Amino acid sequence: MDTSDLGHHISRRFNEDLEALRARVMAMGGFVESQLAKAITSLLEGDSSLGQSVALDDLKVNGMEVAIDEECSRILATRSPTAGDLRVVIAIIKTITDLERIGDEGEKIGLIASRLATMERPENKYREIKHLGRIVSTMVHEALDALARLDADSAFRVARMDRVVDEEYEAIHRQCITFMMEDPRTIRRVLDVMWVVRSLERIGDHAKNICEYVIYMVHGKDVRHTRLEDIERELQARSRKAD
Amino acid sequence: MAGAMQALIYALTRVLAFLLAGLLLGLLLGQITVGLLLALGCGLGWQLVNLYGLDGWLRARNRRAPPDLSGLWGEVVTNVVRLHRRKRYHKQRLLDVFRELRHSTAAMPDGVVVLNDNYEILWFNRMATRLLNLRRKVDVGLRITNLVRDPRFTRYLEAGDFHAPLEVPHATRDGVSLSFQLVPYGRQQRLMLVRDVSRQVALESMRQDFVANASHELRSPLTVITGYLETLVLDPQMDPALLGPLDEMRRQSDRMNQIVRDLLELSRLDAATNEAEFNPVDVPGLLRALCGDMAVRPNTATVQLQLQSDAGLLGTETELHSVFANLLDNAAKYTPAEGSITVRWSVDAGGGAQLCVADTGPGIAAEHLPRLTERFYRVDAGRARSAGGTGLGLAIVKHALEHHGARLLIESQEGVGSRFICHFPVRRVLPDSLEGSIDTTTPAVAAGT
Predict the structure, then answer these.
(1) What distances in angstroms separate CA B283 from CA B294, B315, B320, one per listed residue?
(2) What is the DSSP string of A183-231?
């Protein structure tokens, strides 16, 4: 299914409803992205007021989730969509939950950042967080791009990036343990850093979930809890069939 | 025309010839009607065959050579061929121009995206694909806000005010900044120009850093100089002849201190990327304290405070304080002692709040008004310096107000006076009902002044 499919509705109003819904989800995604970027910046630059403002703005994300959720229920109740449209609505309901969770993790990072800003900064200036943060923000960005384009192939590519995030998470974990063993005075700070890294890793998972919804939306195939190799085989088989 | 006439005559002769042949055949057979009918039928059949041939050729005229027809039919074919050739020539020329245009826009160093009134993508050039990570063909028809999702960009589109471009950092690339500018054109279409302004942004931030660092570095030597000057002035063994120059030195070093402080304040405001915080500020209390200070200053015009509202503001108190203090200070500086200054605080019908500082000073000529908030801009260099300003006051006012989403309006008439009006948006106004929370902050206000 591609976007042009959406143009073939008998009811033009329904069409507009769906388009508006998509636009709202993308707007929410954009806001969550900016929250995440701000949270990471506040940590890297030791900007406590920015961290606080991220934590405060999470309320807006929650508000958006509730509003979009209501809109989805309204569409389900009044339009009773079927097939592809039903999948779109269902995938959107799931996507906004993950977006809201990403927002929550961003809030956590913001709060920890504003606390870490008052503490001594490590020599590497949180380089590992910068690196992981960049991977994770790219994942979220591309997952949302895939959602906007309904592009299952790039969704799969993004989902595969989650492995890199997991490896990176593992590496930072070990590094943190070493730091704590070397100098127990840093334990407090390093524990906070670990929370941030944990949040980033969770955000990667949520981005991966969004990609799975995109694959579900496009192919009607639920690929959650499936191994990546199986998904890939499935996608290839489908694209061959399409040819 | 002559050819057509000839063809017509030829055709008519042919009809006549047919009829004649039919008549002869009829006479031979002894039945004239049948002969004539046969002749007419043959003629009609021949015309139909020609028409069929013409139609077949018209349908496939690009592939088949024109049929070789005689008489009027031949004329028609020639005309069609001529028309067709002319049309093809014009089409080709138009296409060439169009292609040329497309190539030139595609090769433009700026990203160009054509949007319809619904902000759906209609076309974009190569640079836009690179800057915005758009994909050719796939992204046509998508809403631009679905792909460029930065909330600031969405707000820019919603606000619909496309006079100034919008600068936003790139979504995925670090250190890259993009500038967006929308130009409405034609029938409900919009041209979106995207430019990579990383260099300008980097230069701008370097400039900001430089000013901040330079001011900071100047501060410590200045403190030492001021300190020594102060003790020297108070030294009883000082040569009285030097007291005058020393006093002047002290005054000038104080001024320099003030300039450095203002520069630091400005660079802090410059660097602030997010909006001012939303803390309740008791504006009436702040204004009362400031006007009270003014009243005890010597040689100052009388200050009238008109509090038409008890509303407060949501913002950063130190910044608002410096806005109000700077405006009052300016008014006092330029108004003669016998003049008057009116400070009015009010809430308008729309819920926005307004502070108006009006003086009866000499006024400012219209040509200076737009540049008044520039750093170190002087309307009258000699006089301003004698009044002891830093030349940064209004720049601070403008930046601090922008930080609060507020606007500064300056109205002035030479010889009558000037009015400086700060307009605060509704979301920054704290209605009277929350007075309880204001009271708790009042002591801090008093201490601040």
Answers:
(1) 16, 10, 9
(2) -GGGHHHHHHHHHHHHHHHHHHHHHHHHHHHHHHHHH----TT--HHHH
**A53 contacts on B by Cβ (under 8 Å):** 274, 277
Q: Domain with A120 in it: what CATH number?
A: 1.20.58.220
Structural domain count, chain A = 1
Task: Quote the tokens at residue B305.
Answer: 């405070």
Using CB atoms within 10 A of its CB, is residue A12 exposed (0-12), middle (13-18) or buried (19+)? Answer: exposed
Contact criterion met (CB < 8 Å) for B141 and A3: yes
Q: Residue by residue, what is the 3-state secondary structure of B156-191?
A: HHHHCCCCCCEEEECCCCCCCEEEEEEEEECCCEEE
Q: Which domains does chain B have, with CATH numbers?
A: 2-103 (no CATH), 108-196 (3.30.450.20), 201-271 (1.10.287), 279-448 (3.30.565.10)
Q: Which tens digits make up the pLDDT trace of B265-316?
A: 888 888 776 677 788 888 999 999 988 888 888 878 888 888 888 888 888 8
What residues in B contact A151, CB-CB < 8 Å? Answer: 138
User: Measuring CA to CA, which residue among B84, B91, B93, B49 is closest to residue B67?
Assistant: B49
List the single best residue of B149, B170, B174 to mutate versus A (max A Cβ within 10 A): B149
How many Å apart are CA B176 and CA B199, to the nearest integer? 8
Partner residues linked to B112 by β-bridges? B193
**Residue spans of alpha helices (H) in B187-316:** 198-234, 240-271, 283-295
Identify whether the C-beta of residue B448 lies closer than 8 Å to the C-beta of residue B317.
Answer: yes
Residue B334 and residue B326 in contact, taking contact as beta carbons nearer than 8 Å: no
Q: Which residue of B lies nearest to A37 if distances are taken between CA atoms?
A: B171
Chain A closest-CA separation from residue B138 CA (Å): 7
DSSP B101: H
Provide the domain limits for residue A50.
3-242
Q: Is B171 in contact with A4 (Cβ distance < 8 A)?
A: no
**Reported ipTM:** 0.83
Looking at the complex, does the CB of residue A60 fall below 8 Å from at least one CB of chain B? no
- A205 at B interface, C-beta within 8 A: no
Q: What is the pLDDT of residues A218-233, one digit of tens each?
A: 888 888 887 878 888 8
Q: Do B150 and A145 touch (CB under 8 A)?
A: no
Query: What token pair was written down for A223?
Result: 């690929």
Its pTM surpasses 0.90: no
Q: Which residue of A has its CA nearest to B155?
A: A27
User: Cβ of B274 under 8 Å from any chain A Cβ?
Assistant: yes
